[in-house]
Structure formats: structure tokens, C-alpha cells
User: Fold these one by one.
Assistant:
Number 1:
Amino acid sequence: MLYLLLILLLIALDQISKIMIVGRMVEGESIALLYDFLHITYVKNRGVAFGMLQGKINIISLVTVAAIIGIIIYLAKNLKKGNTLENFAYSFILSGAIGNMLDRIFRGFVVDMVDFRGIWSFVFNLADVWINIGVALIVLESVLATKKKEKSIEEESK
């Protein structure tokens, strides 16, 4: 239940942020929040991360739906036996995938708005942040599991 609530909360935050941008800004409009470092810039992304596959919404949608279904099946099968960090990771990834898929279904594009000009030229949204947090948690879980396994092997060899 906790993971379902987290998923719903993250999707809601993503969608509310996008509704606010679409309702208050025009495409291409940018508002500086922190000098020339951080802006809110309304971009219509018809591709995937980093602007790849622009205009390939059918392919992107099929892959995304497959990923969403795969993650739901994985979580359903492993929720009770999976560890907490892994469950949170997949909850974040699922939330981001669903958030961006909702955009593709209802808008025909993904609304991006976070613009860190001081770091790179890509504009992204909260759903993208959720996916990256999820991936980072999976990497962290993998590193921790490897360390735990190494420690266990060390203790057995003593």
C-alpha cells in the first residue's frame, strides 16, 4: 500500500507541475529562477530523454507501455520478497514512466520545464527526475548488495 501511495503521489506532483506550466506559459517561454543557472522553460518534447527519437511517439509509446507493464508485473511478483530500497526504486521509475506516458496519451507530447542552463542544455520534468532517482536507487542497492556479499564471503573464509 505504501508503494502505491508513493506512486500516486509522484504521478500527481508531476502532472500538477505540467498543468501549471501549460496553463501559465506559452511554448518556448522561459522564466529565470536563479540568474542564468536555473530557469523554468516550457518545452514540448516529442521524443525521449535528451531529445532523442523526436517525432517517434508511436515507437516510444509502445516501448514505454511495455516497460510500465513489465515493472508492474515485477513489482507484483517481488514486492513482498524484494528489499525496500529496490521497491522504492521501481516505484520511482514506474511513476516517471506513467507520468510521461500520460502526457503522450493526452497531449501528444511530454511537457518539460526544468532548465539548468548552468549545467547542460537539456530541459526535463519531474517524471524524468523520478526515473533518475529510481535508477540511482537501483545502482545504490546493487553496490550495497555486492558489498554485503563480499563481506559474507570474507567472514566465511575466516
Number 2:
Amino acid sequence: MLITNSQPILNPVEQESVYRVLDSLNSDIPWRSLFPDDLCSSGPHGVVCGYTTMPTDSDPGTVNIVELSFGFVSDHNPNPPCGVNTSGFDPVIFSSFPYLQKLFFYNCFTQQPVSLQAFSLVESVLEELVFIDNPSLFGSLTESIGNMTSLRRLVITGTNVSGEIPDGFGLLENLEEATLSGNKFIGTLPENVAKLKKLKILDLSRNGFEGNIPAAIGELENLIKLDLSLNNFSGGFPASMKGLKCLELLDLSYNRFSNSGIPLFFSEMSKLKVIHLSGNELGGAIPEIWGKLRGVNAIGLSGLGLVGNIPSSLGLFLSNLTYLALDNNKLTGRVPLELERLKVLTELNLKNNSLSGRLPFSGKFVSRIGRKLGVQGNPELCLDRGVFESFTKINRDLGQLKVCNWPSSFNWVEIGNSKSALPHVSRSSSICYKVSSLLAMFLWFFF
């Protein structure tokens, strides 16, 4: 139990080093006069101290800088704002903080170039290194990254950092998040990524990576998010990916994967909630795997070259589905009535396929989804007049959509508590046609 009233103070070397960092990031603010006292007791938001020697009855202990966050994010996170002129910034100064665990920069390096390599001098106790929206940050991940053995979180997004991922990356055995999106990285994803057994997030989106996904990726058993979108990855999907039993978000969209179809082994990844594969020429039909993926809430399958029908199982099993994109494919046949069972669906895109027949949705369903319902670009698809009128109220761009003229296509009728469809009959103006149509209705209802 602490009985002393003494409070530990930050040592003068670290106090002065904080002032130097603040001045180099924004010299327009008088940091020393605004925060003249001990920075551990009255410092700016983003400067965080922690005990490195715990207090006792006779000793107040010692405190050191453990977190430094720069760049105003919001009123909730009002970190010290960075200025336009950061030419005096020198990352070497961070070697003055031997207990620094987190280093965060948001929108700080926007004009004067700063090298990423200079941050390798930060002591190995660093657990989080975060750069978000710093377009003047350049350089590459060097082998020295492997010296940061305590690193749990590495985030570099929206920078000009380039080059390949070095072999030393596989030495970061404590890494839980690697978000390297929106940079200029190139090369392949190395096999030694499999050494990162604690990894939960791997986001390499919006770079220039290429080649195949290594089979070793299936060894990342704790991975929750895998985002490789907007790169140049090619080939197929390795079957070893079924080993990603904890994966919830999978985004492989807009790469160069081809001719592999939608893998059946996805059904073994039972925790999947988000599947985005759009923009790859996969081909094939939509597989019947949805009964084993009932937790999925978003599916993006746009522009895959898909053929065949839309399976009704999408509506039967995916009660949590909020987003379904099947546009710009080669899908044929009728739109399944079961899709209307998706009560939380907020966006449905079926544009630019070869779907036909009557759109089996009620006006209520159409109104609920509103402008996020896309069915244009299917010339043989028609809408009931009431649905057509509901649609025109929310979207006047109907393209080639037309009102159905029964019995030129399916006509949905109530039979008991379910809906069924009358068979398709060619349009005719003859009396024989009208008689045969009435006879067909009679036989349908009573036999």
C-alpha cells in the first residue's frame, strides 16, 4: 500500500526530448510555455507516462514516456497537431525514450520527406508503430525490422514506403496486426509469413504485390482479417486457406486470380462474415456452400464471370446478410423469391446479367432497400406494376426494365401460406390462347 505523498517526476532528458519532438513537428505552437511543468502530470494529450519502477512505501518509483501520439485525430483524440513545416524533424531523437512502447503519427509528414529507416533506431521494447496518411514518409522495410521483437502492431498506410517485404519480417513473432495498405510495396508475399503465429490482422491492400498466395498462409490459425485487395496477386486460391478457422473477413477483390471458381473449401471456414472476391475472372457457378456459412453478412461477387442461376440457398440460410453484389456477371434464370426473406438486407446489386422473368419482390421490399437495389441491365427482367411504380419513386434510371404483362412471364400467386409461380406461356391474342391459359390456371390450382 502506497503511503507516501511523493509523486515521481519525468527525468529531465526525456522531458527535454519531448519538447524537441513537439517543436520539430509544429514550431508554431509554444509548447514549453503551454506545458511548463512535469509532462507526466500535466502534459498534452498523446504524451503518456508509465511506471517503470513501481512505487513502494518509501520510494515514489520512477516514470518514463511509454506512448507518443502526434497528429490531431478528433476532439476525442486531440493529439498535438502537426504543422506544415517538419523539416527539422529527426527520428533519431526517439532513441532518448528507452521505455517507449507506442509511437503514432497521423497526417504529420505531408511535405518534407522523412525516411522510415530512421525509425529503426527506436529501442526494441516498442510494441506499436503506426503511420497513417503520411504521404512524405518514404523508404522501405529493411531487415532491421526484425530487431523490433516486441512489436505487436505495425500500421503503415497512405505513405510512399516501397520495396519488398524483407525476410526479417518473419522474425516479428509477437506481431498481432500488420496493416500495410495504400503504399508502394511490390514483390511477393513471403513464405515466412507463416512464422507469425500470433497474427490476427494481415492487410496488404492497395499496393503492387504480385504472384501466388503462398500455401503457408493457411498456418496462420489465429488470423481474423485477411485483406489482399487491389493488388496484382494471381493464380488460384491455395486449399491450405481452409486452415484459417478463425477468419471472419476475407477480401481478395480486384486482383488477377482466374479460372479457379469460388472455392468449395470456403464452407470449412465457418466463422466467415465478409467475403469479397469481386474483380477477378474466376468463372464457374455460385456454389451451394451457404448452409455452412450462416454467419455471413456481406458477399461481394461482382465481375467474376459467374454463370448459371442464383441459388435460392442464399436467401434460405444467410439471415444476417446485409450486402449482396452479383452484378456484372453472366448469371441466367430467374431471381429467387427466397431473397426477399433477407430481412436485414440493405443492398442488393444484380445489374448487368442475363436474368429473366418477373422480379419476385414486393413493393415493401423494394422501398426498404431503396436506391441500393440494382436490377438494371437485365433486358428480360420485368417488374409488377406496383413494384415498378415503387422503383420509379426511388430511382428513375430504370434502363431497359419494363412492366410485366402477364402471362408473358411468371405470375406469383398465393397457395396456402407460400408463393408459387405459374408456368411461362408465350403471348398470343387468339381465343385458343386465352382458353388454354385459363385451363392452365385451373389445372395449376386444383391438380
Number 3:
Amino acid sequence: MPNQILNTKLIRIALAIACVSLATTTYATNYQDAVAQLGYSELAATFSRDKALAISTLPDEEKLSLPELKAAATLQLIGAPIIGSIANSKTLAEFIANYNQPDTAYLGQLNESSLYQRIETQWKTQSAVKPSAFALELRQLIGQGIATGYNLVTTSWPLFEADRHIIYGHSDIDHAQQLLALLASEGLQARVGFSRKTSAFLYRDDWGTLSQSLIDLGNGRRLVEASEYDLHFEFPTAADKTKFVATIDRYAKKDTANQTGLIRSAWWQPFYRSKNAAEGFASATQIAVSNGKETALLLALPNQAPALVKAIQQLNPTWSVSPEAIWVNLAFHRYLQGGYK
């Protein structure tokens, strides 16, 4: 189910650390400044104009001075997020602030064959988080009929560029491995990240027997809590999102009960989202609920979000509630409207 987070050591302290980082970080005012803050000035100085132009993909690169062009190429080489002028670039400031901190969420490149073993290791070695007081209180969202589900984020997210970032949620790690190999086989390239979450959602009677035990919330409502994960993809271009959508629809989305030719554990409603509008996505609202240390994420249709925000605030006025626009795949959008396919 849902998303948003800064790349800090653990998401449960992400919001606090992010505030400190951004409060104490001086934004770079030019590319050379950013390169100096990251410690790559000497490397940038070795670049010729031709080499810098070969690396840079900025639309205004011809207008840059040679030192700025070389610095811009260096930033792109090391994966720093830059788009046009970087003055007051919050995203780049976050990148600089977190650059030398361990990024436990980033796994590697999609075309690395060792990625499949690495992702299974991440899944098996990171133990599921026991419910905290915050998690127990969140159950009231479902118990009181305020929401039908939410995600409690339990590990950090990678700091990927929003325009090129897709977050894909699932529960079966074999599905994740097959999905990575599928995308590689389709010629897609991407940086890959991995984060864990606890998904909580209202159990529906027509689902039958589940492997998870059900939590009785009273009033005929039963809760499912499952340890799940998000795969994060940062594609070379925003246009790659369209090819990702087509690949999921063809090989990872169930349309009939006994459908063949799909990867393992394909869902009726795959769940993935984009931080920006893109072809194959529909508008939704993501609501981050935090007690200052932990964060839960909920999704709603835009016209339903104001009432949901108000209900959450009434449940616990001490929680911060932050709605933001997000875009979800069409099948999950139908789920938000009450459909099951």
C-alpha cells in the first residue's frame, strides 16, 4: 500500500533527522559549490570540455561556463540529482547531506545478476518489526472504519529522483526476484532500492483462508497485518515508466483466475505508484501519519482525502497528518474505488 520518506538510517527517525539535515545544510548555489561539498572538485578539474559534454545531459549545457559544465558532468556521473539551475535545490541538498551516510535501502543496478541473491538476503536478514504503541493505536483507523488499510514504513527509502522513481509493493520475495529478472529481460535499466513495511488492511470474508492470523477488532472487523516490501526503481528517463507499466500489465497482472504466462504471485491489482503524473497512472492522495518517530502511509481518492484527514486528526490530534498528491497504477486505482480486478 503507500509511500514517502527521506533517506536516513531508519524511517522511524527519518522525519526528525531530515529536519535537522535540511536546517543545517547550505544549499549549493552552483554546480562547483555542490561538487566541492561532495568532495569531487579535483576530479571535475580533470575533465575536458568534450568529456564533460559527453557525460552531461543538461538542456542548457552549452550556456554553462567550462568550470560549471565540468562540475555538472561530475554530479551526473556520481548520480547526484540535478535539473537545470540548482539554486535552492532541496533534493540536491538532501543528497549532499546524506551522501556519506550508509544507504541501506539502495541495492544496485537492475542488470546486475547478483541483485537477485542480494534482495533475498535483505528479506531474510531483516527481521519483522514487533508492533509498537503507535502501530497498535493505528489499528483504530480500521477498527473504527476510518480507513481500510495503511502501510507502516519500517526501514529507510533510497533517495531517488522523483521524476524517475517508481515504488512497487508486494509480499512474496520470489515475485520480487522474478520481477527484477523480467524487467532486465525487457531491456529496462534502473537503480534498485528495497525497503520493508508492515501492511495492515481490513479482511474481506470472500478472501477465504489466509496464511496470516487475523486480529479481531470488534464490530465484525478483522485486521490482517503482513510483513511486506517495496521495490524502488529509478529509471534513466521518466519515459521508461511507460515501458514499466506495459511490462507489468503483460506479465505481472492477473486478468483471469487460471491465467498462465505470468510471473509468480501476480496480483489482480498490482500496487505501484509514481511521485509525478505519468502515462498509465491515475491521481490519488497519499496521507503520511506520524507520531514524530514512526510514519504510516494511507492512500485515498482525491475527493475522499479531506474527510479521511479530518477523521485521522480527530482520532489523535497529536499526530501530524500530511496529504500529498501521488499517482497510482490504474488497477490499484480501481481498488480504491471498490473494485477487486
Number 4:
Amino acid sequence: MFCVKGLSESGRLTSVPSKYFFEKDLNDDCINSEAETIPIIDFSMLTSGSPEQRYKTIQAIGNACLKWGFFEVINHGVPNTLRDEMIRASESFFDLSDEQKREYAGKKLFDPIRWGTSFNVNVDKTLFWRDYLKIHVHPQFNAPQNPLGFSKTIQEYCKRVRELANELLKGIMESLGLEESYIQKAMDLETDSHQLLVVNLYPPCPQPEVVMGLPPHSDHGLLTILMQNDHVGLHVRHDGKWIPVNPPPGSFVVNIGDHMEILSNGKYKSVLHRAVVNGKATRISVATAHGPPLDTVVGPAQDLLDNENRPPLYRGIKYREYLQLQQSNQLKGKSCLDHVKVNINDTCCK
């Protein structure tokens, strides 16, 4: 299997092969370079602050989910040494020989470990300037054998981030007016939640303006928690413009996923975001997607509904089926979420 890293490092590349040319909508490429920034949440105030501080933090989380669908988390307790080691070990994996990485190439969606390029090369009309490593890390833990120590780093990192996600979900539930443990009880998140680790590698590109790392899309699941190396490349769609995300050092970027939009019956909406590349440096991002057990049917929370004033806007769907729908088709906006909206006539994800 070919990969973008090998192409970028070949030493012969002066222009981008035409199969990577991404046709951008000029009306959709307005970037807001002003000082508007994603909300920042102090996690320590959620877990160890006074009752008043916790209340204010929950309100801030709710406002961030409502207005942005994204927020940045500081004072989260995940050691910087562990974060740095996760980035270094991820880079070392991509530095392995193609023969070593090929052991994980061409796998099926729910196979434990997959290494690949673009999004889905079987259906992508345009290839994306991205290599990836995807690992199902919970409830069953998996990891590559190489490089040495990578498995241990992944296990500790994902455990700490999963704990962070669980606390954030409690705060989000309270912001919706539900019990803090609502989602844990309704979806059995304490023991069987599904956690997917996605490591993205975006090598330098000789023509970064004509390619895309990942196109505008929303994420599956309840929450995605992301960190990156020192090179920015994430853009978030807000008020009709793209906002470049440059998080504070040591922070995490958190965004709500399609299944949080479903559960909240549309109050908290997943938001389009994209990954752009540059011509000088390799960007690495490490994302963990947090969702319910794969066979859980996710629909709007009953406590947020009534038949007359707040009818369900989404139909229930198994998390596994939603993943299959999204991951087996082209990555295009929020088309898969449209598939489960009530009274939507469009047949999406074709």
C-alpha cells in the first residue's frame, strides 16, 4: 500500500499528483483570522472546585456545546510527559518500515488495528494528504507490537483520556438538565464504552493549497478528545467562517460528536471541522473518539422529549451501524447524520 509519508519523503516530489487535488468551494473557504477563539474550560473547577465553581463550569460547558460544539480543556491532570511520549511514539510508528506497518494494512472496519492513508481509498474520489493508525482500545485493548514501548504508552494515555471524557460527559449531562450519571447508566459507559484511537500524520506538501488533510466533516460518537504536536492545522466552522485552532500548550481540544447531537435531540450540534496541511513540517494529531458500546441503540434522551412540544428529531440507530455507514462511504459533511433525522427525505451517504 502506498502512503503519503513515503510520497512526501521520496525527494522527487515537486508538485502534487492530480489524484490529490481537492476542489474547494470558494464560498466556503473564508477564514476568520481575527482574535475569536474557542472557549476554554478549566477542568479542575469541574472536579475539585467549590459547588459554585462547579456550577459555573457546567454552565460554561453547556454554552460551549450550544454555541461552538468545541472547547479547549486546561488543568485536566493528564501529565505532559505522557502526552509528549504519545506524540513521540506515534511518530516512531510511522517511521517503521512499510513491511512492518503493512501487517495492519487493508483491514476491515472493526479489525483491532488498521494502518492506512486518505479516508477510504476504496471510495475516495479525491485522496487526502493523510496517513493514519486506527486502534480499538476499549473495552478490549489492542496495540501494535512495534515500536518498543508503544503499547504501554497507548494503554496509559487512553486510560487517562477516557477518565477525562467520563467526567466531561457528566458535566454535559448536567448542562442538559439531566442527572450527571444519566449517560453512564443509559449506555453502560462505565465498563463497556467504546474508545477508538486515531493517530493522524499530515506530512509536508509541496502544494498545500491544492490538497486537504481531511475535508469538512463531523465526528461519530459522543465526544472526541484531541491533542497535536506544535503544528496547527485544525479549522472549525463557526458563524459561516473557518476558525484556525491554536490551543494553549498542554491543553486538549474537545468536540461533541453526532451521537451527542442525537442524544440531546439537536440542542448540542456536532460541528464541521477540517484538517489542512503545510509545506514545511509534519503535523501529528492524536484523537480519541468516545462512544457507547457498539451494539447500543442511540436515540434522543427520553427525559428531553415530550410528544407535543419536543418530539424526537432523530431515530435510534445502533452505534455499530452508524460507524459502518460513515466509514464505508465518502467523508462528506454531516451527510450520515442526515440519514437518521426524522422526516428527512434525502438518501444520504451514497
